[in-house]
Specification:
Blueprint: H1 18-32, E1 37-43, H2 49-58, E2 66-71, H3 82-88, H4 112-115, H5 128-145, E3 148-153, H6 160-171, E4 178-185, H7 193-203, E5 206-209, H8 215-226, H9 232-242, H10 246-258, H11 265-274, H12 278-288, H13 292-304, H14 309-316, H15 320-332, H16 346-354, H17 358-374, H18 379-386, H19 395-411, H20 414-427, H21 432-442, H22 447-460, H23 464-480, H24 484-502, H25 508-525, H26 529-541, H27 550-566, H28 570-581, H29 590-602, H30 606-622, H31 626-642, H32 646-660, H33 671-682, H34 686-694, H35 707-721, H36 725-742, H37 752-762, H38 766-783, H39 786-799, H40 802-817, H41 822-838, H42 842-859, H43 862-874, H44 892-902, H45 907-914, H46 918-932, H47 940-943, H48 956-961, H49 966-971
Parallel strand pairs: 1-4, 1-5, 2-3, 3-4
Helix pairs in contact: 5-6, 6-7, 8-9, 8-10, 9-10, 9-11, 12-16, 13-14, 13-15, 13-16, 14-15, 17-18, 18-19, 19-20, 20-21, 21-22, 22-23, 23-24, 23-25, 24-25, 25-27, 26-27, 26-36, 27-28, 27-29, 28-29, 29-30, 29-31, 30-31, 31-32, 31-33, 32-33, 32-44, 33-34, 33-35, 34-35, 35-36, 36-37, 37-38, 37-39, ...
């Protein structure tokens, strides 16, 4: 498949670029072999970049490959995904029928907002990631057919989103048949300099700098132009005058030949007279020698680009038939390309416009925008003309730019929208709504700038409700920028101001706004330790809302999480969490799902917590929200770990780690590393756990209320497993001090006191151990769940000697047996067996050590299982043969893929759901088959253990809340 996106196919007589062609051919061959690559072609204007690309794409090097070729242009520079539309335009996916194309099946359909001329619903802004994800799958479908070459010329005019997609694609293109070639003018300032520079820095491309033509190449071009030999002095002169620039040289030779100049000493003198400005001079003189209507059509084409004849005729103010005649004249004169309706080079286009004074050019562009509007063209096309104007001085221009910004947002191209709105602010410097819109667009890509705009918007807003809405956006943006204290202060101010204005009995709209401000205040304030105490107090004073509206459900979920953090009342927390989840037919907000799952997990309601997390995972998949998906997956790994499902925890954590490996923000992500480290410790790999934790690079981690404490405990357990007891104790004590500072007192969140007590007892510091154990028991009794009470009793039992300790450990085992925490139960059985062994009761010791070993094997707790077996031998017991599960042989990702394949998902569906490539899935599945000794999907069910899953159906109380009993749900 060749040149689907409009790459021209003229015969080429490229001279002097053999080395560059060979390099491009080698990169194409690498791509055929599955080695993705990026080539960056640099050179001044006219140096032959486009000719080189044409020779490459039409030559044997690209035979049998899909070649997509696009050229960015000044009048579309910076429009959202304009580079993508240039590149993929030849696929025929830019109209209303595109959604029916086989290329856009499945997740590839998410690419539509980037591909169509008008993305449609401007009131529903697209988020950036789903569009990028859809474009990736579109490219993946093309690569499934044959190797893919993407060539984008004049990339200095390319927008941020298109460049971001190319980076997105390359990050996932390992072992894929892909070559991307970008060409840019070295002297031009890029539209998106930071994104282009980052792409080049991260991807380490093959850089081809085009140098001036050498003497041999100049001599060959002179010979071809004059059809015979030339004197050496003539060749040297034209080389010097043109600077070895192929375009300038070609125009110079054409000019000399047209004058009848011979390539000799006389011609040398004339070449010097014509000079290096021959290109602009020749274009200008050519137009001056033609009728005025030829010049007018040329200028119209230079402004509008390749458009229909009717638009060119209207802008040039000539009949359509005259346009066709003018284009023919320009093509014969070498001004227009032979194979397309555009200039031979952008330098020629600029030369056509050079004769216009700035006011005249501005007027021409203004007329062009009005003509495009009358023709019903999308606002982004009109904005392309307006953005080139030095001054915007007509009222209608602001409306066009607002519409263009809305279009850009609906494409998921916020940078383009912000550029348009920035020009609107030039016209309307006090406009609050524009600042709010800009801040919304910038919230993810540039939070500090969004915060600045929101600060300005709030200072200019006079309406209290607008100020409250600005505060909500400001708070959530501060959360993204890790500036939560600043966001919370503004939200407190806004809430007080709003309550004073609306009074104690507000109407429904004002009540919902007040609830929204309150809920966001709690979300933002719960992020950091310095503000958590304030929102804990605020949540304790609040009247719990019924949860009938979106804001009420969000507030209900946050008060639930804060109630759980404070460790006050598990029953109330569970009731509130279930009410927050009970919303038939309504999509839950991610924050609500995460908060409720957190509280339910701490309250031992694991089935409900898993249900909330599975809803959050589904939300991440449906919206291609990778960060949300990874957060849910990592949290689920910690939940699995908490109940002793260690292989499941390891699988989820490894999958999360593999996903973040392809993301720019992956190295700053804490939770996947913490979850993996906890699972690795119990899998008997503490050294690897430490290395995983060493990979955390997030600045100021100690400020955060949740992740920091999970990190400290993960460090402590890794050190403990490596027998660095003092180091482990230091981490537990640091965790305790930090929790006290943050005022988090629920022992189910991080049972640091119980862990420190056990560790102190191991170190022989029994007095301190008993103190910490007593402290942990007090807070556990206040929370009252079986797992927290069992953990506290376990610590107290290990800290006490003799029969008193055995009594507490026995109670701990009973409590934990009634909890969902199988891993903790195995640990308590191990400690109880150890205590009986120390008391010389070998029969009782064998009973509990054998129970510990059995539980450990069921949980996949390698470290506990090994310790139990060793102690069982010393107690005179028979060592049961350790049987390995087939799952133990699989990596986390292999297990996840195998489970999905067993349930009937195709490789592509699995890849789409896990945000990885099809080839990655094929590799994992092949490895799983080999390890399990099976030949295909049909045999997987026989060897994989049946797992209890929670995502397929909700807990019974949810069905009842929806008016369906449990029996009816079972029947379904």
């Amino acid at each position: 498949m060749r040149n689907q996106s409009g790459a021209p196919d003229p015969p080429t007589t490229l001279v002097g670029r053999d080395d560059e062609l060979r390099t491009l051919a080698r990169r194409a061959e690498d791509a055929r072999g599955g080695q993705a690559g990026l080539v960056l072609l640099n050179g001044p204007a006219g140096m032959g970049k486009t000719s080189l690309l044409r020779a490459f794409t039409t030559g044997d090097a690209c035979h049998g490959m899909t070649v997509l070729y696009g050229t960015c242009a000044e009048h579309t520079a910076g429009a959202g995904y304009s580079g993508v539309r240039e590149l993929l335009g030849g696929l025929g996916l830019d109209d209303s029928e595109a959604r029916h194309s086989p290329l856009l099946e499945g997740l590839a359909a998410r690419a539509l907002p980037a591909l169509t001329a008008d993305p449609g619903d401007h009131d529903a802004p697209a988020t950036a990631y789903p569009v990028l994800h859809g474009l990736y799958w579109l490219a993946a479908r093309l690569m499934a057919e044959r190797p893919l070459v993407l060539v984008l010329d004049d990339v200095h005019w390319c927008d941020e989103r298109s460049l971001t997609w190319l980076d997105f694609l390359l990050r996932r293109a390992e072992d894929l048949p892909l070559l991307i070639v970008l060409a840019q003018r070295s002297e031009a300032e890029p539209v998106a300099p930071a994104v282009l520079a980052d792409l080049v820095a991260q991807r380490r491309p093959t850089v081809l700098g085009l140098n001036p033509l050498g003497p041999d190449a100049v001599r060959e071009l002179v010979r071809r132009a004059f059809r015979g030999p030339a004197t050496p002095s003539f060749v040297e002169r034209v080389a010097a005058v043109s600077g070895g620039n192929p375009l300038t040289l070609a125009r110079l030779l054409d000019e000399l030949r047209a004058e009848g100049v011979a390539p000799d000493d006389t011609g040398e003198r004339r070449a010097a007279e014509v000079g290096s400005h021959v290109l602009a001079h020749s274009v200008r003189s050519l137009l001056e020698r033609r009728p005025p209507w030829v010049r007018d059509v040329a200028r119209a084409l230079a402004v509008l680009g390749e458009v229909c004849t009717e638009l060119l005729a209207a802008l040039a103010d000539v009949p359509a038939t005259t346009v066709e005649e003018a284009l023919l004249v320009l093509r014969r004169a070498g001004i227009l390309a032979l194979d397309r309706g555009d200039f031979v080079h952008d330098v020629v286009r600029r030369a056509v416009l050079d004769g216009l004074a700035r006011p005249a050019l501005a007027e021409l562009r203004t007329r062009a925008a009005l003509l495009l509007s009358d023709a019903g063209r999308p606002a982004e096309e009109l904005a392309g003309q307006l953005m080139l104007l030095p001054v915007l001085d007509q009222h209608w221009m602001a409306g066009v730019l607002r519409d263009a910004a809305a279009q850009a947002e609906s494409r998921g191209a916020p940078e383009a929208g912000v550029r348009c709105l920035d020009r609107v602010l030039e016209m309307e410097p006090d406009n609050v709504a524009v600042r709010i819109q800009m801040a919304r667009a910038l919230a993810e890509i540039n939070p500090p700038e969004a915060i600045r705009l929101l600060t300005e918007a709030r200072s200019r807003a006079t309406d209290v409700r607008t100020r409250a809405q600005v505060a909500v956006q400001y708070g959530l943006t501060c959360l993204a920028a890790q500036q939560s204290p600043s966001g919370m202060r503004l939200l407190e101010e806004a809430l007080a101001e709003l309550e004073a204005a609306i009074g104690p009995e507000p109407g429904p709209a004002d009540r919902e706004l007040r609830t929204q401000v309150e809920s966001v205040l709690l979300i933002v304030g719960a992020d950091e330790k310095s503000t958590l105490g304030t929102v804990l107090d605020r949540a304790a004073r609040l009247t719990v809302p019924p949860g009938d509206t979106p804001a009420e459900r969000q507030l209900l979920a946050m008060t639930t999480a804060l109630t759980a953090m404070a460790g006050r009342d598990a029953e109330s927390a569970v009731d509130q969490a279930r009410r927050a989840l009970r919303a038939p037919g309504v999509e839950r907000e991610p924050w609500s799902l995460l908060s409720t799952s957190f509280a339910l997990c701490l309250a031992d309601e694991i089935t409900d917590a898993q249900y909330a997390l599975d809803l959050l995972l589904q939300y991440g998949q449906d919206n291609a929200a990778v960060w949300t998906y990874v957060l849910a997956l990592s949290t689920r790994a910690l939940v699995h770990h908490g109940v002793g499902a260690y292989p499941d925890a390891l699988a989820d954590a490894r999958t999360a780690m593999e996903i973040i490996g392809g993301e720019r923000w992956g190295d700053r992500s804490v939770l996947p590393r913490v979850a993996l480290a906890r699972a690795l410790v119990d899998h008997g790999e503490p050294d690897r756990a430490e290395r995983v934790l060493d990979g955390i690079t997030r600045d100021g981690l100690e400020r955060f209320a949740i992740e920091y404490h999970w990190y400290l405990v993960a460090r402590a357990h890794a050190r403990w497993a490596r027998r660095d007891h003092e180091g482990a104790l230091a981490f537990f004590l640091a965790c305790g001090r930090s929790l006290e500072e943050a005022r988090i007192s629920n022992p189910a969140f991080v049972p640091w006191a119980a862990e420190a007590a056990v560790l102190l007892a191991v170190l022989g510091r029994h007095g301190q151990a008993r103190e910490f154990a007593a402290s942990g028991l007090e807070s556990a009794e206040r929370w009252g769940t079986a797992s927290s009470l069992g953990t506290a009793r376990m610590a107290q039992g290990f800290a006490l000697p003799g029969s008193a300790g055995i009594e507490h450990l026995t109670e701990a085992v009973a409590l934990l047996a009634d909890s969902p925490a199988r891993g903790l139960e195995a640990r308590a059985e191990l400690l109880l067996g150890t205590a009986h062994l120390q008391a010389d009761d070998q029969r009782a010791a064998r009973e509990h050590l054998r129970a510990a070993g059995d539980l450990a094997q069921r949980c996949g707790a390698v470290a506990i299982g090994d310790a139990a077996r060793k102690l069982l031998v010393s107690a005179g017991g028979r060592l049961r043969r350790k049987t390995a599960s087939p799952l133990d042989m699989l990596t986390g990702m292999e297990r996840t893929v195998a489970d999905l394949a067993r349930n009937g998902a195709s490789n592509r569906a699995i890849a789409e759901s896990l945000f990885v490539t099809v080839r990655t899935i094929e590799t994992h599945l092949t490895s799983a088959y080999r390890k399990l000794g099976v030949t295909g999907r049909t045999e997987l069910s026989a060897v994989l253990e049946t797992r209890v899953t929670f995502g397929a159906r909700p807990p019974a109380w949810v069905s009842q809340a929806r008016g369906r009993g449990g029996d009816e749900q079972d029947a379904r």
